[in-house]
Amino acid sequence: MKLSDLLNESFIIPELTSDSKEGVINELIDLFIDDPRVKDIEKVRQSVLEREKIMSTGVGKGFAIPHGKTELVTEILCAFGKSSTPIEYQALDAQPVYLIFLLIGKDNLVSLHIKLLSRISRMMTKDTLREKLVAATTKAEIMHVFKEEEETYFDL
Amino acid sequence: MKIFERPTFSLGKRTSRRNAILISRLVIVLLLLLAGNSILFRYLINFENKDYSWITCLYWTVTNMSTLGLGDITFESDLGRLFNIFVTVSGLAFILVLVPFTLVKLFQSTERIHRELPRTVKDHVIITNFDHVSQTLIRKLKQFKVPYVLLIPDLKEAAELTDKGFNIVSADLDDRETYKKVQINQSAGVVLTGNHFVNTSVTYAIRQVSKEIPVVSTADSDSAEEVLLSSGATNVIKLGEMMGKSLARRITAGDALAHDIEFFDNLKIAEATVKGTPLVNKTLKESQLRELAGVSVVGIWNEGKFSLAKADTKISERSVLVLAGSPEQIDMYNEIFCIYNVANGPVLVIGGGKVGRALGKTLEEREIDYKLIEKDERLAVSDKYIVGDASDKELLLRSGLMTSPAVAITTEDDNMNIFLTTLIRKFRPDIQIISRGKLDRTVELLYRAGCDFVMSYASMGANSIFNLLKKGNILMIAEGVDVFKVDVPGTLAGLTIRESSVREKSGCSIVALASEDSIKINPNPSTLIEEGQSIILIGNFDAETKFFSEFMEKG
């Protein structure tokens, strides 16, 4: 399994409208409101926000990886959004965030959840990938950037 | 579960007893000669109508036996003079023959070398080669009171090692009779640390005598491993590969995942680098790791120095946390921290031998980019290799030293490794340096030169062998720091952890208390230590030694 297998254009927002941390997280979670794979969207939201309370998922270098884990999804879900306006995210380097990758894992797939989070972090830290994502303007372009980048990675 | 048994024999004790018998015999002969000659003197001198006290009789005997012959008391009859000659000759025989003969027996080493072990010996470890690994293993076995015997075919070497206090039996390694003589069927197992050609022959010889006894062998290649296993070895340890993997786990690059070191029942010991995580610059108390993930920090590495965890210990960018917890707790830690600490730039691996290659392979599995610097261009088989001399600073800089998150030094030459550590530290005070070391004294120098982590073949091999033979009781965190498990000794049973003062008296910290069906990780000070439980502790070499002398030996 690869990240690009989990992500599709329906779950990409090329320009987020919110400018707050909670706002952008909600915007991405709302993509799954009518998704049949989600049994309770509010519980999903709660799991992500609770994780955020422990420590900010703003890793630095302008990206954040909000995530949560719950029994109330039937599959692992992910979404990506970018913003051209800086979002105050209490990131580790105290810099604003522009790129946000959301991952919702399943409670019984802990190991895979950790591997996916680790993979997202590793990919997003690459300066070249972030530059390409910032330059991409459409859902298709963003999707292509991820697919191209992940070609050299193993299946998880 | 009885883990550590008292030794059931000691070659050293047997030798001392034999020496005592030899000396006693000499003294008895002397006393008999003095007594017999004194009695005869008194009897014979009476024929010449002279009478002396017993003290004078003894005085006459001693002066004549020692050939002093002062001449103040003399015989006048022929019979008396004949007796005088006999006494002088018996004295000469004692001084010139019996005394030197006994001394030769006492000090001539080859005379003291054992050719077999008594039948009463059991649960001993049989070691077939004397090298760094087996020396370290013997030290461990002694510490844990496990008897051992070292087989040395060469008499001269056997004599020298006997003189140094090792338990030696001199015999041919490829002769099956040897293994009968060292009571193999009652032993805990055989350890083969020689080259794999010898190890294979030895394994065949052992299997002629014993089908079941564990045989643990070292090997340096896949083919050697295959051959040894098919010749009958129970376990084969590839030290180069093991070392490479072990060093790779310590590399700070990629992510902040905690990497498993080992399991003790349901207790997982893992290490986590913290660079780039929100933990940096916090104290352990402030980190709230116990509250967040349930894991306990049992120790912390800071710039090559290990210390036990304390609430006020500060976490720095180069710290490595030693964590203990259930698999779920370690997963929880990883879930929180795996998104942090992503460093750019490839890791530099110096040395493209077995260790370097295994290290690179493990880094690949962790999806960490690396470059391998190797002098010998014949070994450079992929584009990962940079051919050249790593002691050349220009080459290091060209290889990306200034942007690399970590350097792993894997050459066999300790002096070279010390040099490289110093050179690299000069350019990059902040980089993580891990190195392979060989000797105890150079390990110390490597840490002093600026290494963050050092591991040696000897300790790693010895601990692995020990664990295989005694079923997993020591876990090496890094050179000089172990996690180990012991049965609760009588000195600690019935006390609370606070009352036991284990930390204060030994410097070891109690990681967990385990009973047959449960394990209490990081127990609080009021927890009672009960008989029948096992204690899992962490400490450096000195602390471990103190713990054994303070609590296990007295217990």
Q: What does it look like?
A:
Chain A is an alpha/beta fold. Chain A is built from six helices and six strands, in the order H-E-H-H-E-E-E-E-E-H-H-H. In chain A, strands 1, 2, 3, 4, 5 and 6 form a six-stranded mixed β-sheet that branches. In chain A, helix 2 (21-29) runs antiparallel to helix 3. Chain A starts with a helix and ends in a 6-residue tail after the last helix. The mean pLDDT of chain A is 93. Chain B is elongated, with a radius of gyration of 32 Å. Helix content of chain B is 43%, strand content 19%. Chain B has a six-stranded parallel β-sheet with strand order 3-2-1-4-5-6, with helices on both faces. Chain B has a six-stranded parallel β-sheet with strand order 14-13-12-15-16-17, sandwiched between helices. Chain B is of the alpha/beta class and 555 residues long. Chain A binds chain B through residues 51, 54-57, 59-60, 65, 67, 69, 92, 110-111, 113-114, 117-122, 124-127, 153-154, and chain B through 254-255, 257, 276-278, 292, 328, 331, 334-336, 338-340, 342-344, 367.
Q: Which pair of chains has the greatest number of interface residues, and how are they split between the two chains?
A: A-B, 27 and 19 residues
Question: Strand arrangement, largest sheet of chain B?
Answer: 3-2-1-4-5-6
- Rg over C-alpha atoms of chain B, rounded to the nearest angstrom: 32 Å
Q: Give average pLDDT of chain B, whole number.
A: 87
The percentage of residues in β strands of chain A lies in 15-25%
**Spans where pLDDT lies below 50 across 5 or more residues of chain B:** 1-8
| Oligomer state of the chains in this structure | heterodimer
Average predicted confidence as pLDDT of chain A: 93
Percentage of residues assigned to helices of chain A:
40-55%
- Figure out the total of helices of chain B: 21
Kindly state the percentage of residues in helix of chain B. 40-55%
Number of strands of chain A: 6
Strand segment count of chain B: 22
